[in-house]
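User: Hey, quick favor. My workstation is busy. Could you predict this chain's structure for me?
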Amino acid sequence: MSLNLSRPISRLAWSALAIAGTFALLASPKVVIADNAAPATAPAPAASPASKPAPAKKAMAKKKPAVKKHMKKASYTGPSFAGRVVATDLSASPATIVVSRDLGKKKGHIVFGGDLTSRTVIMKGHKHVKASAISRGEKVVVHYKRSMGSLVVTSVWIR
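Assistant: No problem, here it is.
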């Protein structure tokens, strides 16, 4: 175990130098220390009686807040699929829905299948309806998410 002796010695040396410097300043006849000494400045010229008064400062105009446009912010809804209902199986556990979208004669069609849960929101217009209101052939927009390896339908909008 070694002791660090350089630290106390260096502190002692710095304090001795500080004390010696203070005595040197006090003993010097050229140094004048005054707390209330004002800096030497030229006297201000006297105002002539014929001079015009200074113009009054204009009041700063208040900044008007920017007019906000009332626009509805687009919300993120997640992935969706639009098409026609091909089949529904409400007696299965979980209930399922199959939706198909036709891409034309050359490209064929896309089929989407997802699970309906108790938390699935089914809307027709602006009204909530039951899952039994979905019938074959209706145009729908299906919003979904991936959960536990399958596609879970979060909402169905009947158009």
